[in-house]
User: Fold this.
Amino acid sequence: MITISTPVTRLLGIRLPVIQAGMSWASSSSALPLAVSRSGGLGVVAAGPMRLDDLARVLDETAAGTDLPWGVNLPLYRTGSDEVIDLLLARRPPVLIASQGGPRRYLERFRDAGTVCLHVVAGAEHARKAADAGVDGLVVVGAEAGGHPPPAMVTTQVLVRAVVSAVPEVPVIASGGIADGAGLAAMLALGAGAAQFGTRFLATWEATVHSDYKAAVLAAGVEDTRTIGHGLGVVRAIGNEFTERMERLEETAAALDVRRKEFQRASLKDAALHGRVREGKVEAGQSAGLVDAILPAAEVVERIVTEYRTALTRLPSPAVHSET
Assistant:
């Protein structure tokens, strides 16, 4: 059994530096998180779109399904977030990954409950503030990521180096544009202690999204995602009829309320649950172009480890020459 030990794996108590992103609808169930955690990584339940009773059921299923660490992702801006926090405190998940809000709102209570607290950041300044608040670790999301990329659209490679340099004392998880073991090796070389994989785990048997959504991810190339919704909360999604309409409105400087109406007409739920991949928000990262098969999540983790080891063998060793 292979172990890759890093500050992040030691913090979380996992065997491999492979974190499955909490993805609304795709991991708003126990199947994908359990498969990843059982394989040595960290599986993450996406609490964002879930009703309280559904979330309680999934948390109980996940806790009963493994003795290994797992996590919950909570966007703090979601409706009813205070009630969700109360539910999570009662269930005591091993790991919390919070985003879209300040850590002081939740940190002390979860720490008292014994939960490891990770916070999502999109820049060195926010990373420093989260570190000063006392978070246990950071998830650094770069521009290549699906869903909500950072407003400044700084790439993962640059952003990870900036954050690692700004807060060297805090374990960092890199996210955005990472789909394989070579990407994991690159992020560890930059100073991260793990990589978060989102789009790669969309294309798995266990991801609870519509088959047409998975097919759209497989069909996409690295140039086929679009960032739309500028001024409204940017998302990265695979190009379709919806993104084309949004791009036209943005290019012609349509009024904000006009763009907002069009932006809100489409939803991730339409695409993810109902398969409306022409009209819905098919959120995915640029790494969709690196995904070529729908696989069991355990096989994805196994492949990442194999590719990581292969990547290491390709790195040249420095030659030392004696001076004459």
In short: The chain is about 40% helix and 15% strand. The chain has a mean pLDDT of 94.
